[in-house]
Amino acid sequence: MTSLVCTNRSPIGRYNSSCRFQEIYSMLLRTFRSTIPAVKRMYSQIAAYDKYTTLKVTAPSEYVCHVELNRPDSLNSMNKQFFTDLRQCFEQISSDSSIRCVMLSGAGRFFTSGLDLKDAALLTSDQPDVGRKGLALLRGSITPFQESISSLEKCSKPVVCAIHSGCVGGGVDLVTAGDIRLATSDAYFQIKEIDIGLAADIGTLQRFQKVIGNDSIFRELAYTCRKLFADEAFKIGLISSIFVNKEEMMKFALETCTIIASKSPIAIQTSKKSINYSRDHSVKEGLEHVAAWNMTMLQSEDLIKAVMAAVNKEKPVFSKL
Amino acid sequence: MTSLVCTNRSPIGRYNSSCRFQEIYSMLLRTFRSTIPAVKRMYSQIAAYDKYTTLKVTAPSEYVCHVELNRPDSLNSMNKQFFTDLRQCFEQISSDSSIRCVMLSGAGRFFTSGLDLKDAALLTSDQPDVGRKGLALLRGSITPFQESISSLEKCSKPVVCAIHSGCVGGGVDLVTAGDIRLATSDAYFQIKEIDIGLAADIGTLQRFQKVIGNDSIFRELAYTCRKLFADEAFKIGLISSIFVNKEEMMKFALETCTIIASKSPIAIQTSKKSINYSRDHSVKEGLEHVAAWNMTMLQSEDLIKAVMAAVNKEKPVFSKL
Amino acid sequence: MTSLVCTNRSPIGRYNSSCRFQEIYSMLLRTFRSTIPAVKRMYSQIAAYDKYTTLKVTAPSEYVCHVELNRPDSLNSMNKQFFTDLRQCFEQISSDSSIRCVMLSGAGRFFTSGLDLKDAALLTSDQPDVGRKGLALLRGSITPFQESISSLEKCSKPVVCAIHSGCVGGGVDLVTAGDIRLATSDAYFQIKEIDIGLAADIGTLQRFQKVIGNDSIFRELAYTCRKLFADEAFKIGLISSIFVNKEEMMKFALETCTIIASKSPIAIQTSKKSINYSRDHSVKEGLEHVAAWNMTMLQSEDLIKAVMAAVNKEKPVFSKL
Amino acid sequence: MTSLVCTNRSPIGRYNSSCRFQEIYSMLLRTFRSTIPAVKRMYSQIAAYDKYTTLKVTAPSEYVCHVELNRPDSLNSMNKQFFTDLRQCFEQISSDSSIRCVMLSGAGRFFTSGLDLKDAALLTSDQPDVGRKGLALLRGSITPFQESISSLEKCSKPVVCAIHSGCVGGGVDLVTAGDIRLATSDAYFQIKEIDIGLAADIGTLQRFQKVIGNDSIFRELAYTCRKLFADEAFKIGLISSIFVNKEEMMKFALETCTIIASKSPIAIQTSKKSINYSRDHSVKEGLEHVAAWNMTMLQSEDLIKAVMAAVNKEKPVFSKL
Amino acid sequence: MTSLVCTNRSPIGRYNSSCRFQEIYSMLLRTFRSTIPAVKRMYSQIAAYDKYTTLKVTAPSEYVCHVELNRPDSLNSMNKQFFTDLRQCFEQISSDSSIRCVMLSGAGRFFTSGLDLKDAALLTSDQPDVGRKGLALLRGSITPFQESISSLEKCSKPVVCAIHSGCVGGGVDLVTAGDIRLATSDAYFQIKEIDIGLAADIGTLQRFQKVIGNDSIFRELAYTCRKLFADEAFKIGLISSIFVNKEEMMKFALETCTIIASKSPIAIQTSKKSINYSRDHSVKEGLEHVAAWNMTMLQSEDLIKAVMAAVNKEKPVFSKL
Amino acid sequence: MTSLVCTNRSPIGRYNSSCRFQEIYSMLLRTFRSTIPAVKRMYSQIAAYDKYTTLKVTAPSEYVCHVELNRPDSLNSMNKQFFTDLRQCFEQISSDSSIRCVMLSGAGRFFTSGLDLKDAALLTSDQPDVGRKGLALLRGSITPFQESISSLEKCSKPVVCAIHSGCVGGGVDLVTAGDIRLATSDAYFQIKEIDIGLAADIGTLQRFQKVIGNDSIFRELAYTCRKLFADEAFKIGLISSIFVNKEEMMKFALETCTIIASKSPIAIQTSKKSINYSRDHSVKEGLEHVAAWNMTMLQSEDLIKAVMAAVNKEKPVFSKL
């Protein structure tokens, strides 16, 4: 299968045009045989993020942070502590001017097996009354879990999700709240909630159809709980690229994050804000929204720095944000 | 072409991973060479649904009903009676606790040729005044036809559309209101309204762009009235799967429906509700909506039954709904 | 590669069904070896559109007009005059009953290199006060540029964009406001704004995600500023067709426009109105909107003319609009 | 208090300008001492509306119908039959071209005491499961009751509510769905739901704040369940006029209905449609909506008839609608 | 009635607190017996606004302009020229930095009699086809007239409407698009459109219910076409103040405009923008909108100037805007 | 003026019907000459709320808490600490099951003088770049202040604001986020922001027009910064009642709170949720929202308890919430 392997699209500019017509093959499998040494996970954890027991946060390159789901022994299943950590971590990142882009992945064998069903606190309540129990579920679980997942979307910096192996149940809620999704060729996704007797209520049913363009397959996935493998996930637009193994994926993810982190933070953060807003509004309202923001942002020094750097063919250095 | 044929995605778990990299071929053609005997159309019509003259309603398996467009001599063209039957039938299904999933197909040579232009009552009015004629069209045709088509969407149970041969004009309005769309390799779709001098006003222009992810091709289809064949329909996301013939498609459709019907009806119906709502609202509003519903639904017995069944590796039995 | 070449989808009806299963190859490359002589650009400019210095407007066939970005020496970069011309031109076309469809392309080597950064008036203001400078930018640049780009969307007639070579920065804002997008195999798109330190504010961030179905790739493009080549643009749904060269593309574009221009203008314009409205509203509101319009439009003579022509197998002749 | 009594505002043109400065007194009390004989309730019931057991429908003048809540022995309390009757009755009126305006009042001692708590079917369900019970309440009570109340709003003809004595609980839901509200000086309103342990869910909490302009008093009424007497109801804008007794109110209501029924039905029904739509949308969307409708309606013969009648000082005669 | 007369609310600070409890009388009639000489209409027309034949534009005080409806011989009826003038005039004012507040009144005996029915071009079309006629009405009359009226709302500066005598039909559309409404005690308003057989389609049905708080009276006015006299208009919130005669009203209007014109134009224009936006959006969206604007505006020099002037008890001088 | 004094509206049922026609006087002035001893402010602070330095929180009666703005020496001006305290306090109350209703007032001479302009941290930022300064203002001041004010609206329990003397600037933002507003006869309101050179951005411009029904006076207040005295505030619907002095007001406020606190907390909290939601959505969406909630809430024990208590004429005792 050697002839199928080519890098049809590379963020570091090695685009080989003769290769383009073979995209049909290469879209199935992104293999890097580059000589860049493998990305080593040697970074020490960032001190300020030490406190999260279910996440590991490191700094693989300047302005990039790497958040790892870090309960490998439980297949990174999502317990109450995880939801609390996740939200606090992304709120901290959102206002941490030493970070401009986030890479999210899972430690161990699995990306995540979804909700930790052993964590009894998740979906129960000791209220005897139906009304009070309903409110307890709403206030104690549903809303805080929704806000935890939404913290990726609300984070002012882009989030690149690198997914390997299984991404099940709550994991789908999680990655659809990110900006960019990558996966290994052995990855699969599973909207699993209906199999445990409930409708997915923390993001999947709300975001999935808005990030892809195939409502028929989305509903089939949601109703049947069948697995969605990486190649079909690529075809329907859930993920941007497929990689032969996790190592290659992490290398590419880091490259992508590093490129994003090198851009004007004013431009990146305003863009993310506008993209999220525009998804949920009419074109006209999206235009008014970005116009209001750009009254300020077009007066930023980043504009001049970026243009000057381009003219002088230098790397621009932007102030903290 | 034998080597192209493989079942890349099967709802009953026979996924052949070595096959996955050939998805690019198999996506064009789903062929089952399984030994499961062909689905025989031997089911007798359900008595309670006898009254519909333009539809045939049978019960191919537990909790599944099969609605067939049943005017084969007129290529299942849609006359006034059809619109009335369709709406009543799906409203009846929606509250019929013996049905949990619906399979929709067309009897005879064609799925449907669209609006029955011989039914003079459809688009005319004997009002001499432009204003009154406008209101007569609105109240006598446009709105009731819209509500008829929308009854698929409003039906609390999922609707799987199995399309063969031609699906023209009003047929496109119809199937885009369903949940899942399957087609045979000889099927084609045609947004035909502009060719008879009018803008499609009962669903196509409103739903088509929301179920696929290719506005450019959608507009080309709408403006030129050209045919969209099954392979391109698959590529742009209008349909989930292609089958070599109608028999294979019906077999797969029934399997899919049977799987859906085996799940918690609380979970399925809440999911459909949330998916429809979320399509038309912002992510935030979609989250609030499903949260309000799950205050009730997380207290349902289905949750416990589903989890218990999973633990005990049994088939759960859910109460009627 | 001869065997890969076939016209899987042709607006003039030569569909070769045996070819369909090869769509997977031909989707990559649309090659016409037809004997139709090449489309010559011999049309003289339409007098009423002489006044636009940055655009060239010709009439290649009945009811079709061709708008060319016409600053080839500056790579059709977009200066202040261009934005003014563009809006006035499309407003003029919108109410010009001799035009029913528009073809948009770029003269010279490039489709467009985007914003003309040499036009100092674009993003600066001599106001010393931050507040007043913000308003000056809003009122002097952002809003008028947005309205200029949106004039394609608001134009009552469909706009077919034929893109060759580079379509950079503001060019992406421009073509996503059109109805149908075609490209040559050497074309590429680039959301370039972040590289000059600003968030795209005249359409790309608002419309791009609504015309395709792959949010992950969209955000990757927006944040990294990488090039999107024609084949990937085809895959994610940004463009409908790829052509081996500009000549073939223009021929196809003209054919498409000619077909659209032959249809009922009442039906076409109502459809465009409804498609734009439905994109920004819920299905229910989209249905109410088209219903209100069709109270009038179903009473138009075009309906009878179209049906009669179909019955008599004649070409219908519609009144001006 | 004789000097306080004057008709500051009369629909039949007897406006006494010297009286205007006494409006402050007369606004409290509309007293007619006119010689017009009292409105006798001698009209026989309209045959087509005989079937409603909880409502009495008569025809007091041309094109006007009078709907009476007609369970005086139960204080017109609202039972399941009432909700069914109400919806069917107003849907029938909506498409009955012999009716152009509706007068709604209550027979007997009370306007209505609200929900009939003795009708056990209203708020209970025999489902043992919380989820199924929730859906049974939604589908069996809440939604059908909401649709029953909303049938006044959806009715294409204006509804004038004439309220005497108590209008409690569901009665407030009912009258806020009407167009115009009149009351006798002894009338009172009471948002009563919280006193029986539930949030009002069939209209009051949704419409009340949109028909008046005093959110502080609205919330006080909703939370405390205190009575709102006619004078304060007048002050905060819930009702348009106060009358010394029911006879005077009915006379005025009938005059108002008769005037409305004498106008162009095209103009009246389009206005009601637009007012309802505009309440729930932005000004811009309201303008687009009425514009789409008036494309048709400005071509109606009613326009010419109305203008001609005005010129010739004749009473216009409009076709049925 | 002398004792009733007091200035309960005066923009120039002469508030007499002992008078407050008599507000109930004085709200009916604002009488100034101040010694300030009557406002003389001696200002010459502003040259740049000479071109409008149906409007007279003068400059009564610094930063204030006075727009007069100026077809007194036709009772300021609104013809096609008027709608064109009005829009152009308010767009000119919107970007004229020498104007900060606008006073709008009518010359002659009447404020305006509404649509000029003698201007045949207004509501007719020579198109023979219903569809084309509909579009001609939409594009030639309805939309341009709507945009003309909406130009008051879109004007970046506040508009104070001073209304005397009759304000009929289109006049109500006009003044409800202004910011502040004042009237003389002999003024009356009349939603007149239904009497000429059409639904008001240029603003009244869309804005009226949003500027007052009494839906019942609004609908009564719309359906019956009865006159609304100044006192009732005051009671329901259509107008802010009533004056004994036009002279007093103009004096007060000019004082109000002068006060507004003395404030920070950044603060005034941002406030008007936010008020208009918030009317049409949820509270949450309104808050996000003003927050985006204030990122810029809080950095304006006006903030410092205003605070410094307050500290130093000086009149602040703001830069042009 | 003794004869004018009567309690036209009393929450404890002493309604004197003969008094009703004097409402016009009494609406100006609510005087209680009841024998109930004056409300003594003897309650000790609730321990759990000790931490707030700018607020004093006491428990005047069962399930009622009293929050006092408690910086009397600074006229309760709003500094950064205040905004932090306010939000935390209302979030704490929202989930404190020992509180069911909140009374908010100001300690000392003034209700509040608004933003504390001496707190330099409020509106400045040390960022040198316009873009970064804008974001710093957004994230450091505007958004947190908005969220602080909105915490009253989001609090699950009703908030009754009792306002005396001046309520200026930020104070208007504050009280319009409450549920019910009462004021003393010497109270006044002042939208003051424009006088310090900025548009009100933490609630007034967004909520004021939605709680009253007089857009003309609202805009006059916003643009001119004039004072709005209690009587006019009452007339336009900003406040529900006026009192002769603060003691009487506090007594009435406490009575109102006590009544609210005696009701079913399920019913009260669901009602507040629905009222807030409905204000910002269409009637149809408001109905769907409350329906989803009542699927749960109608199954609450509160319903039975409330009905039983009514039948048995007992005071119901509801479980904690």
From TrEMBL, chains A, B, C, D, E, F:
Location(s), subcellular: Peroxisome
InterPro entries (alphabetical): ClpP/crotonase-like_dom_sf, Ech1-like, Enoyl-CoA_hydra/iso, Enoyl-CoA_hydra_C
Keyword Lipid metabolism attached: yes
Superkingdom of this protein's organism: Eukaryota
GO MF entry, a single one: delta(3,5)-delta(2,4)-dienoyl-CoA isomerase activity
Reaction catalysis annotation: (3E,5Z)-octadienoyl-CoA = (2E,4E)-octadienoyl-CoA; (3E,5Z,8Z,11Z,14Z)-eicosapentaenoyl-CoA = (2E,4E,8Z,11Z,14Z)-eicosapentaenoyl-CoA
Pathway in which this enzyme or protein is active: Lipid metabolism; fatty acid beta-oxidation
Record field: transmembrane: none
Main location (coarse class): other
Keywords recorded for this protein, A-Z: Acetylation, Fatty acid metabolism, Isomerase, Lipid metabolism, Peroxisome
GO cellular component: mitochondrion; peroxisome
Record GO biological process: fatty acid metabolic process
Pfam family, one: ECH_1
Family from the record: Belongs to the enoyl-CoA hydratase/isomerase family.
General function of this protein: Isomerization of 3-trans,5-cis-dienoyl-CoA to 2-trans,4-trans-dienoyl-CoA.
Protein name: Delta(3,5)-Delta(2,4)-dienoyl-CoA isomerase, mitochondrial
Organism encoding this protein: Oopsacas minuta
